[in-house]
Design a protein that fits this description.
By secondary structure, the protein is an alpha/beta fold. The chain has 2 domains: 14-139 and 405-416, Enolase-like, domain 1 (2-Layer Sandwich); 142-397, Enolase-like C-terminal domain (TIM Barrel), CATH 3.20.20.120. The chain is built from 15 helices and 14 strands. The protein has helices at residues 3-10, 65-78, 86-97, 114-134, 138-141, 178-182, 189-203, 217-231, 247-257, 271-280, 297-303, 319-331, 345-357, 403-416, 423-430, and strands at 16-27, 32-33, 36-37, 41-51, 56-62, 149-151, 154-156, 208-211, 237-240, 263-265, 285-287, 308-311, 335-338, 388-390. The strands form 4 sheets. A 7-stranded parallel beta sheet has the order 7-8-9-10-11-12-13. A 3-stranded antiparallel beta sheet has the order 1-4-5. The relative contact order is 0.17. The protein binds D-glucarate and magnesium ion (MG). D-glucarate binds next to loops.
């Protein structure tokens, strides 16, 4: 028997011995969006799997008390399993939790399904373990690196002056983009330009996204024109009203922005409406709201809903599913980029591994990272150079938990009293009676 065969014969399968689920709260500015206002803390859940040989694998997902409870239940299904056996784990989770439909995603700009988050947290942590056991970075487990560094885009937000809890007093210089942003009187486009300049100067971003759906379209579209004047035609611009515009509004303002923006993200709600807007405009449409799961791909293709799918490994069920999506996008002529929500370094590292493996990389990825200053990874926050993040060195995700920071941010979670993201409630604290609407303009 040669060495390879004997290694195979003698292989002792690793087993997941321990699962730790730790909710954390990281400070977050009062960012405005279609659903209302960000709370002073963004919630994330850090998942750690430990094998019988003490190999630790980590992942991060959006924080939500009911997803955390489901994860607690899932523990029994995962403990004792071999982290390489991802297909079996997926099957057992599906059998237990039942199939989720796209309707369970909800109407908010972010995804509220449980199972996709659970898959993602287990899969990414297992990939981290597999990487450590094989001595390979996660990107190699996804088929290998096509680029050494992954470009991200500046992500601009209007803010609610005067909200923001502890952040009102926070002057952490690493929360870049914040100072200029704080002075922003939202209705004046020069303020959003100042925010963009601060963020691009600090991080080197070479494309810019504006979170819309907050003010009437005229205000937001004028901000895009102001950005174009300030940055010139070589800086790609995007705007994302999170589906709050009607078809008519989307076409009217979309026409104005033809030739000025790289893509228009979720102007309107639903695949059919998106398809109508897409036919009327000469601008690519992108989505993280109308085509958000594999089951929606057939309708996306037959209606022609979008040009670019903004994947998100937290919402598409993990990194390997996201790689499967890249092939579907290639087949049906769609571009692929990535969506984000407020996050820390474990999610960023996972996005970078995935971004480095995407075959047709045309659009800088979204990230909220410049808006956060807390971190749970050892060695502090990941660095951007010229708007890009280098693929972390080392096996697995290439980042490790800072256990002291994890404990501190968990205390934040316990103290802050938040259990899930609810931007409507936060908005009502400053604008009594404010209501989320699925379509506003
Ligand atoms: O952080 O307020 C926000 C965003 O609106 C986020 O929740 C969205 O999911 O960034 C996201 C998007 O592109 O739709
Ligand atoms: Mg979006």
């Amino acid at each position: 028997m040669n060495n390879l065969n004997s290694n195979f014969e003698n292989r002792k399968a690793p087993k997941i011995r321990e699962i730790n689920i730790t909710p954390i709260a990281v400070v977050d500015p009062p960012l405005l969006n279609a659903a209302g206002l960000h709370a002073p803390y963004a919630l994330r859940t850090i998942v750690e799997l430990i094998t019988d040989d003490n190999i630790s694998g980590i992942s991060e997902i959006p924080g939500n008390i009911s997803i955390n409870a489901a994860l607690e239940t899932a523990k029994n299904l995962i403990l004792g399993r071999d982290p390489f056996q991802l297909n079996a784990m997926r099957r057992v989770l599906e059998d237990y939790f039942g199939k989720e439909t796209s309707a369970q995603r909800g109407d908010a700009p972010w995804d509220q399904r449980k199972l996709v988050h659970i898959f993602s947290s287990i899969e990414v942590a297992c990939m981290d373990i597999i990487g450590k056991l094989t001595g390979l970075p996660v990107v190699d487990l996804l088929g290998g690196k096509l680029r050494d560094a992954v470009p991200f885009s500046a992500y601009l937000f209007y803010k609610y002056e005067g909200a923001g809890g502890e952040l009102e007093f926070k002057t952490d210089p690493t929360a870049t983009g914040w100072p200029a942003a704080r002075q922003a009187s939202a209705l004046n486009p020069t303020e959003i330009v100042a925010q963009a300049k601060a963020m691009c100067k600090e991080f080197g971003f070479q494309s810019i996204k504006l979170k819309g759906g907050v003010f009437e379209p005229r205000v937001e579209v004028d901000s895009i024109f102001a950005l174009r004047t300030a940055f010139g035609p070589d800086t790609p611009l995007r705007i994302d009203p999170n589906a709050l515009w009607t078809v008519e509004t989307s076409i009217k303002y979309g026409k104005e922005m033809e030739g000025y923006i790289e893509y228009l993200e979720d102007p309107t709600r639903g695949q059919k409406n998106m398809a109508t807007v897409r036919k009327a405009l000469n601008i690519p449409l992108a989505t993280n709201m109308c085509t958000t799961s594999f089951e929606e791909i057939p309708d996306s293709i037959s209606f022609g809903s979008e040009d670019i799918i903004l994947s998100d490994h937290h919402f598409w069920g993990g990194l390997r599913s996201s790689m499967e999506l890249t092939r579907i996008c290639q087949t049906f002529g769609r571009g692929l980029s990535m969506h984000s929500n407020s996050h820390v370094g474990i999610s960023l590292a996972a996005m970078v591994h995935l971004g480095a493996a995407i075959p047709d990389f045309k659009y800088a990825l979204d990230t909220h990272y410049p808006w956060q200053s807390d971190e749970v990874i050892a060695g502090g926050r990941l660095k951007f150079k010229d708007g890009s993040v280098e693929v972390p060195k080392g096996p697995g995700l290439g980042v490790e938990l800072d256990r002291e920071a994890l404990a501190r941010l968990h205390q934040n979670y316990l103290k802050c009293g938040l259990t899930k993201r609810d931007d409507e409630i936060e908005m009502q604290k400053v604008v009594p009676g404010w209501k989320f609407k699925t379509v506003r303009w």
